[in-house]
Amino acid sequence: MPARAACLSLVLALGACDRTHGTAATSHVSEAAVPPRSPEVIRRDGNHLVGAGSVYLAQHAHNPVDWYPWSREALDRARSEDKPIFLSIGYSSCHWCHVMEAEVFEKDDIAEFLNAHFVSIKVDREERPDLDEVYMEALTSMTGSGGWPMSLFLTPGLKPFFGATYLPHDRFQSVAGKAAEQFGVARSEIEASAEQVAQGIGRRIAQEGATTASPIRPDELHALATAALGHIDAQWGGFRGKTKFPTPVRWAFLLHAARKWGDGSLREALRKTLDAMAAGGIRDPIGGGFHRYSTDPQWQTPHFEKMLYDNAQLATLYVEAGLALAEPRYIAVATDTLDFLLRDMQAPDGAFQASIDADSGGREGAYYVFTRDELLRIGGPRDGDMLARLLGIAPTGPFDGASTPNRWASFSRTSRRARIGALRKWRSDGRPFARGFSPRVRRDPHLASTRRS
Fold it and tell me: Domains along the chain?
């Protein structure tokens, strides 16, 4: 079943869940609720995530929130006790998921309130992409944007009536309180609003399926590629925005369009974008590989997690671009990225890890940023200074004085002899930038078991 059709089936199933399990959401008949355990007991003994195979769920197994995985037990409890559901969706290498855990889900006051008024469910988006997709549709329809951690309040019939992403402690406390209050005093309005959201998702997915069912003509594809030029950042490449994602699938489409129709403007946009991503801080010039996205239009300050699927697709894109545009430097970027995947993300059993955490030593990006003084200690006064210039490390940077390294100097007039001397010093001991801590590689057990089979 195609992904969009499967997603539509899931949306439609939300309305049937009450019939499937024999309890109508509108009946509001509740059985005796299970008395909640205290946060201290849950923190000590664990919640319903204890023993979960997902790394992300296991991280939350001793939160004082009485989390359930997405399961028949959790859904049946919500219906039998006629309680709303708090649904939290994230993944193990998500920085803001860790922040929200520390600020919100580890706090006893939040836990007590959630445990008393909601059935709380944790979902790993990498384990359940089907649920992630349908509820992300709901979130974007309600708020106009999405992201992780995803925070949704659902009726017992699994239909969302409020959604957000990251919420700090006080804001979450206010939102959860309002959701519980409205569910109690304005139930019919809540149910009607949630039903509209679910039906809207179903209509949009059905329309998308109907639109893609008929073949797309070549002239329509050409028009789409040409229209994309109007959204490209002429200075820094990529699609215009305050943040920038690599979106390799989009650029692969534009690369194929440039090859098919010989469009020079598309080729120029591709070169601008591929050069900017390869030179900017979104690409790790020391360890290799690309970070998830850039928090600025210049591709300089990344969100530091590294994803397997991003790097695999970007390596493919750079190989294709290197051949199609006759640019050997893109082949070099692809080779460097594949070397990173084989060296740092392949497990001993041959499978590949899903991601590398954004946090190191308790701080986001700490493993990846450097100060000028560090480079002077590594390379000495002359070569250390050249390394700092070569990697764009300023005397003071935005990360407690440290900066994200980049390769923009590769396009400057720094002499080739000076660069070679500095790089030789850089690589002299094989691990020139060894740190007292390392980024955390997150293992996807399902991917690994699939590979072993």
Answer: 3-209 (3.40.30.10), 218-367+435-452 (1.50.10.10)
